[in-house]
Amino acid sequence: MVVPTTTPVRQDTVAPPPPPPPSSHGGIPTVDMSAPGSRGALSRQVARACAEQGFFRAVNHGVSPAPGARLDAATAAFFALPPRDKQRAGPPSPLGYGCRSIGFSGDAGELEYLLLHANPAAVAHRARSIDTDDPSRFSSVVNEYVGAVRQLACEILDLLGEGLGLKDPRSFSKLITDADSDSLLRINHYPTACTIHKLDHDCQCKMKSNVRTKNGNVVNPSAGARIGFGEHSDPQIISLLRANDVNGLQVLLPNSNGKEVWIKVPADPSAFFVNVGDLLQALTNGKLVSVRHRVIASTCRPRLSTIYFAAPPLHARISALPETITAGSPRRYRPFTWAEYKKTMYSLRLSHSRLDLFHVGDDDSSNVGKGEKE
Ligand SMILES: C=C1C[C@]23C[C@@]1(O)CC[C@H]2[C@@]12CC[C@H](O)[C@@](C)(C(=O)O1)[C@H]2[C@@H]3C(=O)O
Ligand SMILES: O=C(O)CCC(=O)C(=O)O
Ligand SMILES: [Fe+2]
């Protein structure tokens, strides 16, 4: 893990012992969730990574590999279907099967995906167009995976609550275990450079790889390093990502001089990569930071990634927890509901720093020209 420079908020008067020496995986903070030692040390380590990088690799996390393997097999089988069969589960609304196009504002990436609501009723409904042979088999594979990964998400959120010294350490996990939680599951399939023309054909995309620049030249923005999934932060509370052994994920982290640089995340199929989302940044008054990340797809093997986006119910009010507001750290964001935030984000481009729009007393000029809908 990158050596921390700040300590997360605590109400204790006695300074806690510093977390164990950080470990690193190609510059990526790594937390061993089963390391011997106290829970307090683990919670401070998790809070430190989320405060400084907004991102960490969780190893020895206790999630059995079986549900992930079953889900990978089911989704790989779906992506291998003929285009016409896959399109039965699309176009994305934003849920469903999507190819190349991301969101509603003109963003594109070299991928195809399934975006599912994580609640069992929604999964059962969607499964009918994804696995026409045996929808209930697909549903049970998804539900089993979601159950396992949600448990890990709750454990991480509880550690964060403890590490931040919250009065109710379960404040974060309660939001995602609510029966009306709006959590999502996304499975991204990035085809290889060699088969990208096939994806062009399969998607029957109106969108072309070539684009005309302002001066009239025609360029292919995806030549060479191809944007698999463009730069963004995840809007929800926390995201847990697991992928196969194909690289591609990059995160924007501060280097030792404080300059933000793109760090390539070495693939690790046995780990979960944990991202702080915009809502957790808002709930902690900016103590935890929502990390910007992207996928550059340039390998010879397809990348398959599965991301669980843990979200509160639509009506949940997102307001900085009182413990995170102090005289030296006044409220940064005005309260809002997740529904309001979602509506705003779907009106904006993928790369938009949308949380800035909720900054108290901000005239939003910092966001002008940064990814607005064209
Ligand atoms: C362009 C967009 C796609 C997205 C919604 C948005 O308007 C901006 C955020 C995007 C994102 C990124 C993380 C997740 O993959 C996602 C499902 C989400 O909640 O926010 C996507 C949205 C999407 O693809 O629908
Ligand atoms: O597919 C990946 O590895 C990451 C994709 C991502 O960041 C997302 O879907 O929000
Ligand atoms: Fe993401």
Your description of this structure?
- The chain is of the alpha+beta class and 374 residues long.
- It is 28% helix and 24% strand.
- The chain is built from 9 helices and 17 strands.
- A 9-stranded mixed beta sheet has the order 1-2-3-13-10-15-6-5-4. The chain has a 4-stranded antiparallel beta sheet with strand order 9-14-11-12, with no helix packed on it. The chain has a two-stranded antiparallel sheet with strand order 7-8.
- Strand 2, helix 1 and strand 3 (55-59) form a beta-alpha-beta unit.
- It is globular and about 60 Å long.
- It starts with 22 loop residues before the first strand and ends in a 28-residue tail after the last helix.
- 2-oxoglutaric acid (AKG) binds at residues 186, 188, 229, 234, 241, 243, 249, 293, 295, 305, 307.
- 2-oxoglutaric acid is lined by residues 186, 188, 229, 234, 241, 243, 249, 293, 295, 305, 307.
Any ligands, ions or cofactors bound here, and which? the ligand C=C1C[C@]23C[C@@]1(O)CC[C@H]2[C@@]12CC[C@H](O)[C@@](C)(C(=O)O1)[C@H]2[C@@H]3C(=O)O, 2-oxoglutaric acid, fe (ii) ion
**How large is the count of helical segments?**
9
Task: Tell me the radius of gyration.
Answer: 20 Å
Residues in helices, as a percent range: 25-40%
Model regions low in confidence, pLDDT < 50 over at least 5 residues: 1-15, 205-223, 363-374
* Basic shape: globular
Question: Which structural category do the helix and sheet elements fall into?
Answer: alpha+beta
The largest sheet, given as strand count, sense and whether it forms a barrel, is: 9 strands, mixed
As a percent range, the share of strand residues is 15-25%
Number of strands: 17
Helix/strand order: EEHEHHEEHHHEHEEEEEEEHEEEEH
The termini sit apart by 40 Å
